[in-house]
Automatic annotation (TrEMBL):
This is Zinc finger GRF-type domain-containing protein. It comes from Favolaschia claudopus. Residues 102-129 have a biased composition (Pro residues). It comes from the Eukaryota. Residues 86-101, 419-453 have a biased composition (Low complexity). Residues 67-156, 178-226, 364-464 are annotated as: Disordered. Residues 370-379 have a biased composition (Polar residues).
């Protein structure tokens, strides 16, 4: 018998006998017709453990039984010995290439109708094939002397041995009673037992006890064992030295941990100087261990606020080292700790702050170097770029550079765009038509400034968009800039940023030309001035007396810059 190469299935057992089998059998077996030629190529499945047998095609099996009952004329032809090999000149008749019609079974439509009892008789097991009566005497094997069953080898047993394959030559009850393994399949204990019914709730099943108990157990008594021969007690001196080394190591480890914590607190500290009244010395306080370093919010440090007598709703002025100005801020706001770790604060409205300039000069960042020692000759590239200016304008610029800087506080003559009737300059991006024809156009005046056209609008509103007022008709940078706008521009350009200084300068002043040397001269003059002078510049009005050049001429910072240029 042959089987299909499929997966094995569970044996259905013999339900009408109450036998449940757990063996796995092939799903399909094909009968080779060795014992019953009429059953050749019929499909079935069987189990050797429980004796299960089933034909998978009952109709084909019934047809084979009918052919078997009608004789060999309608069944398989008898096996004949092969003829002698034919000669090469012999030609086989095509009509003889197939068996004659008398050897072929009739079609199912010509078969006589049989009752259901004969159509589906109970199939015999494959171990006991049915042999036709005509050839029963020929097909029945004659038992040999070696296959005859002898008496059971167990003492006191009169039965014969149950199987010739028994390893102990015993009958089945005696072989199973001794509990030893046997080669005979029928003498082995059957594993096909009825499966117990499982409960619907799987949590009702019994579980093994847990390895670890969740209840407190009394400590187990340590059995007293005798020390081994090679084991000796530790000497007193060695134990004392060992304990001392262990304690010293623990102390060094704790000291190192404490040192790291203190070093972190020392690195993340800030010193605050706070002026509460005009003319009074500043209060000093220190705060260490800032967890949000380098960001700082004063409201998260109540001890520091208590030392400075401040509340959550207080408003203070905080000094910005980059721009050189005080800015009004709330207590509850996040700031970045300055690189100097010094915070200068004062109450809103305080102007007289002793030692403020000393603190600023001591802790402010270094001013970048400027192009102070430039060559007197102008390069060809610079000369080509300056040829676009008219000769009269170049002469006025050169004369302005060679004139000595005034030290008096007297205001200069009123600029063309300023008149007694209009103290504020016009915010228009282009001059009046009357002045456009008489005044030569410059590249700075031709650029759009995007300024509001309403004179009533406050120019300070431009600061919120990152720009300052750059009025036309007052000259070139920085002659046409007011001091308060220049102070605001310092706060927008000086702080470090990813945007280059040249781009920030062009955006703030709304121009396409970036005079690097001139700009850093103004920065140095602003940085070297006293804080009272810087506060004054930030409060000057937009009049002829409030121009940047007027304030710069009387400032101490510009005097230091000119003195350095003369050296």
């Amino acid at each position: 018998m042959a089987s299909y190469p499929h997966e094995f299935i569970n044996c259905p057992g013999i339900p009408h006998r109450g036998i449940v089998c757990t063996n796995r059998i092939p799903p399909v077996l094909i009968c080779s017709g060795r014992n019953e030629p009429y059953h050749r190529d019929l499909r079935f499945n069987a189990c050797d453990e429980c004796g299960h047998f089933k034909w998978l095609d009952p109709e084909l099996w019934a047809a084979a039984e009918r052919r078997k009952s009608q004789g060999p004329a309608y069944g398989a032809p008898p096996d004949l010995p092969p003829d002698n090999p034919p000669s090469s000149s012999f030609t086989l008749d095509p009509a003889l290439a197939y068996p004659p019609s008398q050897y072929l079974p009739p079609p199912p439509s010509q078969l006589p109708a049989l009752p259901p009892s004969q159509l589906y008789p109970p199939p015999p097991p494959p171990s006991q094939p049915r042999i036709p009566s005509s050839s029963a005497s020929l097909a029945r094997p004659v038992p040999s002397q070696s296959s005859r069953k002898g008496p059971c080898s167990a003492k006191g047993c009169t039965r014969k041995e149950g199987s010739a394959e028994c390893s102990f030559k015993m009958c089945k009850p005696c072989c199973q009673g001794q509990g030893k393994g046997c080669r005979s399949t029928s003498h082995r204990p059957r594993s096909s037992t009825a499966l117990p019914s499982l409960p619907d709730d799987p949590t009702a099943l019994s579980r093994p006890p847990p390895i670890f108990s969740y209840q407190d157990q009394p400590p187990a008594a340590v059995p007293s064992t005798q020390p081994k021969v090679y084991k000796t007690s530790m000497s007193t001196e060695f134990a004392k030295q060992y304990n001392a080394n262990h304690e010293a190591h623990a102390q060094r480890k704790a000291a190192e941990q404490l040192r790291r914590e203190q070093e972190k607190q020392y690195e993340h500290q800030i010193r605050v100087y706070f002026w509460t009244k005009d003319g009074d010395e500043p209060q000093s306080a220190r705060e260490q261990g800032i967890a949000t370093w380098p960001k700082l919010n004063l409201i998260n440090h109540p001890k520091l606020l208590q030392k400075l007598a401040l509340t959550d709703s207080s408003e203070i002025d905080i000094y910005d080292f980059d721009s050189g100005c005080f800015g009004r801020e709330d207590i509850d706001h996040v700031m970045e700790v300055p690189r100097s770790k010094i915070l200068l604060m004062r109450h809103v409205g305080i102007r007289d702050c002793p030692q403020l300039d000393d603190f600023i000069k001591k802790h402010r960042p270094a001013v970048p170097s400027t192009a102070g020692n430039r060559r007197a000759s102008i390069s060809n590239k610079r000369r080509a770029s300056t040829d676009i200016y008219p000769s009269s304008l170049k002469a006025s610029r050169l004369s302005h550079r060679t004139e000595p800087l005034p030290r008096s506080t007297s205001p200069p003559s009123t600029p063309p765009s300023l008149s007694p009737s209009s103290p504020e300059p016009s915010l228009s991006s282009s001059p009046a038509p009357s002045t456009r024809a008489s005044t030569p156009d410059t590249p700075l005046r031709l650029l759009p400034t995007h300024l509001p056209t309403q004179p009533s609008q406050d120019p300070d509103a431009l600061w919120e968009s990152g720009r300052v007022l750059n009025p036309a008709g007052l000259g070139t940078l920085p002659d046409n800039i007011y001091a308060r706008d220049m102070a605001a521009a310092f706060g927008m350009i000086i702080p470090k940023s990813a945007v280059p200084v040249s781009d920030r300068f062009k955006t703030v002043f709304q121009t396409s030309h970036y005079p690097k040397g001139t700009w850093y001269q103004q920065v140095r003059a602003w940085k070297n001035s006293e804080q009272a002078e810087r506060d004054e510049a930030a409060q000057l009005p937009r009049t002829s007396a409030g121009l940047w050049t007027i304030w710069r001429a009387r400032s101490t910072g510009w005097a230091a810059v000119t003195e350095q240029k003369r050296r």
